[in-house]
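This is your field. Pick holes in the following sequence-structure pair:
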Amino acid sequence: MIRLNSCKSTHTVERTAVNGLQERSRITWNRKKGKASLAFEHPPLIISAASVAGKKEGEGPLGALFDKTETDDMMGKADWEEAESALQKEAADIAIEKCGIQAGDLRYLFAGDLLGQLIATSFGTVDLEVPLFGLYGACSTMGEAMSLGAMTVNAGYADKVLSMASSHFATAEKQFRFPLAYGNQRPMSSTWTVTGCGAVILAKEGTKGFKPYGRITGITTGRMVDLGIRDSMNMGAAMAPGAFHTIQQNLEDFQVEETWYDKIITGDLGEVGRQILLDLMKKKGRDLSQLHMDCGMEIYDKETQDTHAGGSGCGCSAVTLCSYVLPKIQKGTWKRVLFVPTGALLSTVSFNEGQSIPGIAHGVVIEHIGREK
């Protein structure tokens, strides 16, 4: 994990005599790194992870790794939005059950989706009766949820929190692009919104009785990056500059090279966005070609599933993290990864008004539990 002596931490010690007999010591640690990053003094543990995916996702390369694959994308509900809410509830229930706790043991829930007013989240999690922070970071929401959850646990404001994000192909197409019955032709730069939900439970350092997947040792919070992309069918191009900025900021803030990580994993740039990211990094003298992995390119088989540039949506990075990435970290196959979910912040209103599409990405440093402090 991130070493104390590599973080340029500062501390002050104050000793005040009380009646000439007692001393009081106070150590205040400054864990801020660079412009946008934090290194956690008490890295939260990832004690549980759950992934629930749809039928198309289950037929892809990661299908056997999901905790549950739904053969009916309607989930037996009356509409697509209710189905996405059911995905969230199911993923939360599985994550809670897998680590043997109760919903009441969770102090906070950090969760979001792509729908207006976060209706998949608010309707899907109401029965959990856990205090909710509803989040919208577009497809970067899983990174935002994990970042805020980790900050809360590290600071001592909670012992356990749940971080979660979902998306659904039909609800996303209905809200952002075209009704499914329209049968529009999709350009090759477009991506396929993942039907799925991923959930992780974070617990304070030193929590016993679990076999953690790893620990979150730091984060880099992204900022809006807008290079004027206006093509809503090319989300990779809109998000790649945001991913580039967050990755570059992370490396600068922690004063490390890209090879410090075993993998740098973006959320859903797809083939187009990935190439743009690699080109931008190359201009900075950094070669990510062997280190980089994109969740959107892992979840589908391009040759057999007709998903064009790859997968997208909040659920894309969330289910790939929970089913594929975290088990590799737990086993020690990857010792340290930078998980960077990516998001394109647009709406039908902004798009129809001719506005460009800003991108954002949030970085989460996840390390194998075997690493020394």
Summary: The longest helix spans residues 80-98. The two ends are 5 Å apart (CA to CA).
